[in-house]
Write a structure and sequence with these properties.
Blueprint (H helix, E strand, L loop, with lengths): L4 H16 L3 H17 L1 H8 L5 H12 L5 H12 L6 H16 L1 E8 L5 H12 L5 E8 L7 E5 L2 E4 L2 H13 L8
Parallel strand pairs: 1-2
Antiparallel strand pairs: 1-3, 3-4
Length: about 180
């Protein structure tokens, strides 16, 4: 999901306010539950982005759905978005908030793709290698893809390290196609 500048500004403000009010964990819980509902309910997602429904009605329905189920801070924030004609970016704001939360708490998410499931020893080695970079917590999201044949692909933030057998075979294939292997006399 592409995050707009407006969504980024709103999520930053919500994070700062939640930290200031010492409600960061509660707001995160609210956001996780609302995000889950948005992903499950296509009708609710469509309703929020609808240009046919006016913003007052969106605010009224959102209040009836979430009032008493989320913190006042979260509810007031959702109302603010609706009043500012920004209910359509609620999902974006929440996705950006989750990323900002991880940065604030120094939690690093690492995606590891391997040909087979990682062993506990390998998970520990990955975490230990990255913990040296002063992250408080390392979360490993694993994907098994037999097409990489062996090795692994590690992605985090904007970095990728490809130590897969398929990538190494691709490099060999590329060098053969460039005829680098021909011995010069």
């Amino acid at each position: 999901m592409k995050i707009t500048k407006a969504a980024s500004r709103y999520s930053k403000s919500l994070l700062e306010l939640a930290v200031e009010k010492d409600q960061l964990e509660k707001v995160l819980e609210d956001i996780n539950s609302i995000s889950a509902l948005l992903s499950e309910s296509r009708d609710l997602s469509t309703f929020l982005v609808s240009k046919v429904v006016n913003d007052d009605k969106k605010e009224e329905i959102m209040r009836s759905l979430f009032s008493g189920k989320v913190t006042d801070l979260t509810m007031n924030f959702i109302s603010l978005l609706a009043r500012n004609k920004r209910a359509n970016i609620l999902a974006e704001v929440f996705e950006d908030f989750k990323e900002r939360y991880k940065i604030h708490k120094r939690i690093l998410t690492v995606q590891v793709t391997s040909a087979a499931e990682l062993s506990d020893d390998m998970r520990k080695k990955i975490k230990d290698a990255i913990k040296a970079e002063n992250w408080n917590e390392i979360v490993i999201e694993e994907t098994v893809n037999p097409d990489i044949i062996g090795g692994f692909i590690l992605k985090t933030n904007d970095l990728q390290f490809d130590a897969s057998v398929s990538a190494q075979l691709q490099e060999i294939k590329q060098s053969f196609s460039n005829k680098d292997y021909i011995a010069r006399l």
